[in-house]
Amino acid sequence: MSERLRIENLYKVFAKDPGPALQVLRKGGTKDSVFETLGHVVGLDDVSLAVPSGAMYMVMGLSGSGKSTLARCINRLNEPSAGRILLDGQDLVPLDEKALREVRRTRISMVFQHFALLPNKRVIDNVEFGLKLRGVAPAERRRRAEEVLSVVGLGRWGYHLPHELSGGMRQRVGLARALATDADILIMDEAFSALDPLIRTEMQDELLRLQRTLNKTILFITHDFQEALKLGTRIAIMSEGRLVREGTPQSIVLEPGSDYVAAFTREVDRARLFDARSVMKAPAVLWRGSAGIVVGGPEGGFLLDQEEQVVAGLDGAEIARLQETGTLPAEQAAPICVPEATKLIDVARCYRADRSVGVIDEAGRLVGLLGAEQILARIANLPVQEREP
């Protein structure tokens, strides 16, 4: 996956002259030590990360961790004190005001926590606003605004004023305005945190739906770890202006790396986080014959054809008889198989005690096996038996 955004050794010190604070930080000083010695506030301390193209990249941490400062440095609402911000290889830090305005108009859009809508303008005028600043012709920006309003489910509300909409609908307008510009990067700064819980869940689901269709590169700022797990393809966790952990949601839950990160993971619903691929065992070949290949173990297995497509399921007793007699049962059961990305909670629903669950790839080939031990161990946060090579 190609890289869309790269942050390299980024610092932000809120001071007229950040030089002395940067020297302290580069010698191993902390946010607290800088404040105690110089009275300067450190927003970012040597942050480096890479955002893949098409990723939903979550940046999270407690209040004061630096996550929103990072978002505002990327589009230079806050001026970085040192470091580089590379968008498709172009460093945004040295850009002059004219070039920076062009980047904000065409390459980076932002969705704010409190909607930031123009209250006296109709919904469709709000959505058109960025296109108007870009100089897009009226007919074209109206067409684009109507298109994105339809995408976010507000096609009938374009000619209403913002106060006539619910909170969730107003946030959809903010999202539509950002999407209308078709920018390279969409920054969402605590975009759903002001919403009621039910509306917030609906907006999260809506964003996931839109992402499946649009495949945007999104940098999403949040203080909610459950939101980060639900939405994110990668998560960066910040503390005291520093990046303290970065990785996939699954890797962070399995290996937090510090007590600070572990505190976020304690209440995670692992059955909804981990998928079949993360715990499956490699299938062992038990028998080969003219009828195909049998893979599995004592608890059950599968009959495959020569292209490794699953033909039938076999229980433990059938496999034992096969190994003794070399003959398959006359009547074979339908296999129980799930795609690699199936969450464990859904695997558990189809599991049967007398059979293994097969894991198949996009082409329908068997790539792994699941038994109760693997499923329960991952859900209970116990060591899972390593997959065989």
From TrEMBL:
Entries under Gene3D superfamilies matching the protein: P-loop containing nucleotide triphosphate hydrolases
All residue ranges annotated as the ABC transporter domain in the record: 5-265
Recorded catalytic activity of this chain's protein: a quaternary ammonium(out) + ATP + H2O = a quaternary ammonium(in) + ADP + phosphate + H(+)
GO biological process per UniProt: response to osmotic stress
Cited PANTHER family: GLYCINE BETAINE/PROLINE BETAINE TRANSPORT SYSTEM ATP-BINDING PROTEIN PROV, GLYCINE BETAINE_PROLINE BETAINE TRANSPORT SYSTEM ATP-BINDING PROTEIN PROV
Protein name per UniProt: Trimethylamine N-oxide transport system ATP-binding protein TmoW
InterPro entries: AAA+_ATPase, ABC_osmolyte_uptake_ATP-bind, ABC_transporter-like_ATP-bd, ABC_transporter-like_CS, P-loop_NTPase
